[in-house]
Structures are given as structure tokens and as C-alpha cells.
Request: fold
Amino acid sequence: MSQQLQHETTSATVVQLDHTAIYATDQQASAEFIAGVLGLEVGKRFGPFLPVELGNGVTLDYYEKRDEPIQSHHYAFLVPEDRFDAGIAWLEERGVTYFADPRHMEPGRINDLFGGRGAYFCDPDGHNMEMMTRTYVRP
Reply:
């Protein structure tokens, strides 16, 4: 396939998030952690990145960074009801505390925002992860 044809078949017609890099002190452990919670697989190494592909074509590219502290970021994942239950069970089995709120003030609880269910939890580097079954209703 020519480069021009390949470019045409992979170009977007709307703006989309394609991938994001997530800094980790141990990229394997962090990639396996989120893949386990979400019921996904860790992909094959791509350069310095260890990818976890989400179902909508977006890739989380874990990048190992050990020379300075990792700054916490927030990542939210919209999941089906059954995956939410499995994710909560996965966290509980490993003794990972989840919270109903983003400030982590309500441990061991889930929320019911927008008619769905949601929970927040930290990954191995302290990133504030969120699972939810309904997307936020925005004004």
C-alpha cells in the first residue's frame, strides 16, 4: 500500500484522541494494573512505550520515567455495567481502595452520578483513575 493511500485510509474526519502517554515508575506494573481493572490486554512494546489499547481506538502509552517524581493526572474510563462490577471485584481482590468521590473521602463506596455508577482509585503511581458506567451530563 502506498504511503498516500495508507494516509488516506487512516485519516480522521473529526478530531479524536488517538493516544496519550502516561508516565510510570514501572511501566509494566502500571500497564498491567489498568489492563486488569478494565479487562484489557497489555500490547506489544512500541519504542519506549507499553500500550494498553482501549475499545474505541485510543491507546494508553505507558512511558517509564524514573528521574523525577510522577505528577498525578486524572483518567476516566466509561465502561459497561458488567465491566464495572468486574473492575470493582478486581480492585477488592488486590486490596486497592476505591472511592465514591474524586477527593477520595468516601472509601469503599461507589457513586450514582447521572443514573450510572462510578468509582475512583489510584494506580501504582498515584494517578487518579475513574471508572463510570454513564458519561457526565454537561451543560
